[in-house]
Amino acid sequence: MCGLIAVAGSSNSALEAFAGLMNLQHRGQDGAGILTVHSKKPGGFHLQKGSGLIENVFSERSFKNLTGTAAIGHARYATIGRDDPNLLQPFLDYETGLGLGHNGNIVNFYSLREEILKKSVIPVPLDSDSALILKLLTDSLGTTVLSPQSIFKAIKVAMDKLVGSYSIVCLTRDGDIFGFRDPNGIRPLVFGSKTTPEGDKVYAIASETIALNFLDYENIEEVKAGEAVYINGQGQVTRQIIKQDSYSPCMFEWVYFARVESEFGNTSVYEARFRLGLLLAERIKSLGIEADIVVPVPETSRVAAVALAEGLKLPFRELLIKNRYINRTFILDGQQSRQEAIRRKLFPIASEFKDKRCIIVDDSIVRGNTAKQIVKLIKQAGAKEVILVSSCPPINSPCYYGIDFPSAGELVAHNKTEDEIAADLGCDRIVFQTVQGLKTALNQQSLCTGCLTDTYPTDVNSGREFETRRLQDRDRDRALTPAKHSSC
Fold it and tell me: Are the C-beta atoms of 455 and 449 separated by less than 8 Å?
């Protein structure tokens, strides 16, 4: 899961990309990059990228160098190769004059890479699936003049080979930008425009609506599954459905990953999370569970917890205090890193838990690290009973599409009953959202729920090998610097 933005037609394209990325920081904390070019001075790319948070990668001086009327930006969330600066995006192919940023994961990466390398006369570094996508595009384009037609043709060739999830933004040497989304629309991508006070038309493509809303873009709409959008340096927009198989957006965007101000599939993240809480309240009533207070696990479960408290007519209390300077523990690298960060991240107001039956609401339970630690802290504070509630159904299967749980063995809910999960986590009882409740709350009957149901929108047979090899690569990456393989 990564953050993407592309801007065309702005004299402050790098600053716009930077501001957009700042609103997408939650999508990736490992590194960031911005690539710019001037449409009236073709061929002059300017690139800066670095490890760490966005505000630490760029300074005021950066924007004296990052000049141009078009830009793309990327915030990296790494599943492998976290510390390798060579894997930071955007990537740039100087020969073709094409820069690329990618959000997603290619399931058939290993087999496709081997196929490409066998055909290559000169060794080509393909250390990530993002680099592989750029290679497919540039091979198809060759020396062809870049235009909507040639680009769409190259995208079609790539789509016919790629299996998995991908939202892509690209920048050409002529100052054109384009973006496209995989044929199942698993990863998000939105598109908008605005008119400057000087009367210039500016266009942008991004991972979430919040990035464009913040920058005052209007007419914001989703890029459709399998669609490509091309904007040239003169502001002409060309759109085409290249290949469309289904509409199966990742449910985790609404449940956890996206900013609460964003919107996907005509459903706001806030509304979806609120409805998840209301449905959980009805479920808890039907189970005959009684409690004294409702407490959210900050930050992404807050909206669902408020709705649940209202539905149960119970006091809502913020009693787990978050250290705002700790990053998202879910996307940290390695079990030990996550556990250490959890201990630093949350601390309870112990006196408010004493002798109370507590409903603790979390957005989801993946490995169980956070949940186990929270239950332990609350029990030590003297709680009478701890009922753990998840606004997401049990996550019991791997994700092959860019969220970092590639192995079922890592998942606390895999092949376990609710009683067994509760025992593992140390709580008195656990309640999960249902899959149908999830679809109702999100107002989406067509979703990617592979991690919940083990039924995926693409063929994942090669993903079984992918799972094993990615885990091997991840273990090796922890022992080597720099790391060698990565998925965005």
Answer: yes
The string over 91-101, giving b where at least 16 C-beta atoms fall within 10 Å of a residue's C-beta and e elsewhere, is bbeeebbbbbb
User: Is 488 one of the annotated active-site residues of the chain?
Assistant: no
- Whether residues 158 and 25 share a domain: the answer is yes
- CATH number, domain of 168, equals 3.60.20.10
The two structure tokens encoding residue 277: 């809480």
Q: Are 75 and 31 found together in one domain?
A: yes
| pTM for the structure as a whole | 0.91
> Is the bond leading into 406 cis (omega within 30 degrees of zero)?
no
Rg (CA), the chain: 23
Is 396 a member of any domain?
Answer: yes
Name the region of 465 (left: φ>0; alpha: ψ -120 to 50; beta: rest): alpha
Share of the chain above pLDDT 90, in %: 76
The beta strand positions in 107-226, using DSSP E, are: 164-172, 177-181, 190-195, 201-206, 218-222
Burial zone of 297 (CB within 10 Å; 0-12 exposed, 13-18 middle, 19+ buried): buried
Same domain, 278 and 238: no
The per-residue pLDDT for range 179-217, each reduced to its tens digit, is 999 999 999 999 999 998 888 899 999 999 999 999 999
Instruction: Answer for the pair 250, 448: CB distance below 8 angstroms, yes or no.
Output: yes
Q: Domains in the chain: how many in total? A: 2
Taking the C-alpha atoms of residue 294 and residue 373, their distance in angstroms, rounded to an integer, is: 18
**Which residue out of 2, 358, 427, 451 is catalytically annotated?**
2
3-state secondary structure of 32: strand
Give the tens place of pLDDT for each residue, 246-267.
999 999 999 999 999 999 999 9
| CB neighbourhood size of 44 (10 A) | 13
Domain of 342 in residue numbering reads as 270-456
**Angle formed by the axes of helices 109-119 and 129-141, nearest 10°:** 40
Closest CA to 215 of 1, 8, 29: 8
Q: Are strands 385-390 and 357-362 parallel, antiparallel or unpaired?
A: parallel
